[in-house]
Amino acid sequence: MSKESVTEDSDSLCVLILAPTPKDNEFCVQVLEDARIKTRVCTSLKGLCEQVNQGNAAVALIAEEYLKADQNGLIPDLLSNQPAWSDLPIVVLLIAGEHASPSLNRLQELGNITLIRRPVRIAVFINTIRANLRDRQRQYSVRNLLKERNDVNQNLEIQQRRFSLALKAGGMAAWELQNEKLYWSDAIYDLLGLPRGEPVTLERFYSVIHPEDLPKLQDVWEASVRKRQSFEEEFRILYAGKEQRWMELMGESVEWELGNPGHFAGLFWDITAEKVQEKREQRAAEIERFLSEATMTLAASLDFETTLESVTSLCVPTLGDWAILELISDDHTIRRMKIAHADPAASPLADQLMQTISNPQMQQHSSPHLFGNETIFVENMTEELLREVVPTSEQLPALRELGAQSLIVVALGIRDQQFGVLTLIQTNAASRHKTSDFKTAEELARRASIAIDNARLYKIGQQASAAKSEFVANMSHEIRTPMTAVLGYADLLAGSENDPVKLKHLRMIQKNGSFLLDIINDILDLSKIEAGKMECVTERFAANELIADVYSMMQVRAVEKKLDFSVEYATTIPSQIESDPKRLKQILVNLVGNAVKFTTEGSIRLVISYVTSGESPVIQFDVIDTGIGITEAQLSQLFQDFSQGDTSVTRAFGGTGLGLAISARLARMLGGSIEVTSQPGSGTTFTCKISAGLVDSAPLIHPVKKHNTTTETPESQETQPALSCNVLVVDDRRDIRYLVKQFLIKSGAEVESVNDGLEAIERVERGQNSFDMILLDMQMPRLDGYQTAERLRSLGFKRPIIALTADAMHGDMNRCLASGCDAFLSKPINTKELIEIVARYTQ
Q1: CATH ID of 171-278, from 3.30.450.20, 3.30.9.10, 3.40.50.1950, 3.40.920.10
Q2: Which residues get modified to 4-aspartylphosphate (predicted)?
Q3: How many Cα atoms sit within 13 Å of 439 on the Cβ side?
């Protein structure tokens, strides 16, 4: 029968009519239609069968004549092939006489057939049809129930199939706990590595859990079952009793209807791959963080020894329990070695290893082939591999005692030049090196190589700088000492000479000697700045007084060249500022001196202003001249060392070209800058800005403008103070002793002199302690001035000691004071300064 569904609505039920004659068909249709029963007339047995197959039949009304003519048994075959739920009601209109035909007999055997004799009584006919319709309607209800159940079963089967496929695809096992009995899907055997068919009870399940994770899992399981709460837990198992794997177990309570307790059910699956990936990502993040921190650590210092120690300490414990760094000479002998280890108790072994490997009798490195840019990676160290790596039997015991489980050796080098190796050793079998560690070690070695090479180059540079500084200091000392005699004797002669021509010659010696001294001072200042030894001492002082000093010094030079020189205040300024007055004066003298040098006629103006518009207040100095000006090309080189724009300027005006370079650096040290604007032939303006410091409490003042005229003459020299004291001069140079003695005697002092510090100490020890002051040269043979001062103080000499030094490079000023001197004078000795300092300390 067709599987096309037939509606359950009684209005759609249809009686198929196959009566003996058309008139009989009309009669049956009329009777049934009057009884509100739907009908459909068929004209042949075949047509009736087609209607049945199409699902249009609720009851079949057939005249016996057609059954007798059914030689092929169409109707019985049709009924025997009905679905299980269907039993089509058949009503047969019998003819008079015997009723023997094969089809009728077979229908009676199949059952569900009703016979009506003719002539038909209408009431019986209608009731019979209705009774069969009710039977058919019940069949439809059963059919629908069966279909619904079948659909449910099919859906369950599909869902079960999909669930099974999902579990299989996800590598999951399903489980149920019902009535304290645990059920698993078959996938559990593959997940746990157990033989198929073995009962997997809760106790058996617990037996494969990693011992460290079992207590927590048991607590979670029991609490969840007891409280009927959902749970998810990650833990490790020992797969097949050996391999460690990560698993996840989840479960939830399943309740039946009406709140009755049902059972627990859930899933179980392998998360080892996720854990491995998670660990890999964590490791990658750790390595990235490690390399970043390593780069910052290595860049934090340029000290060679600190850098070597940083390399090894960085490796432990991230890349190994031991790290050995060896710097190797071209002949593969070890020239430097550093060792770091994670275990403090391993220090004795580290010392033994250091002594063994660095033994001069076995300096051949174990891996000379590294100089072919190769590396070593031993994931699983064996005795045989250890013997291959270690070249001598003397080194084996110490290295064997390390208990190396894995080893990485990477080359250290840069620019295709290898200069060492870095060896990383893991002593824990569970932490053997992996390929990722090897790659990390190579990257660290690359960064470490750069850091070590930078430290090496810095060390070389420092040594070169120290050598240069030492050379400049020695040069300064060797020039300053004879310059003391040159300028000093010129002063002595000038003081007693009346011949104008000879006096002019002496003044020329003094002028050029001072010029040579300025050059020496410039070179010393530049060397100090480059060596980082130039210091700024911040103090509070009156800027207007410092500017007045600068004016007093420089207006003499301006008058000599018949230039107008003025000081102007564009704004009020603080009565006091915070800066280094010595360095500020040096800058202003350089800038004004430069303007005087390059201006042949016209004027020079020093304009001062106080600027508060920026982040912090500054003092601005504008030095404006009407000199030769500076071209664009010259401006770009102006603040470079030993540069004056071009060589023609140097030849024409003289100088080293260091003044502006030094001034610019000093301005930066004072928190400011120097800028320049110029027009060739129209003059130049240098603008110097320095930080004013904390000046909130200082009142603003407007100092008086200063201006000279080209007819002014230099101020006469101040009268030097008269001395009344007894001075001991200690110097190994006879000419210097004589010169200083003459200056002091001329000013009224009594003077004695000795050749060196030992003689000075002998004088004091013999009780000849009548000296009011000692002038002490600091660079003497046998016993230098520093040692002499310390010895004198230890003997109880408490009167002033003034140091005389030609070494202005090494910061010996502080050293002089620390050794016991009260003050110092730099050579060549300025007569005025000498007399003033002696007067100050003795009167």
Answers
A1: 3.30.450.20
A2: 777
A3: 7
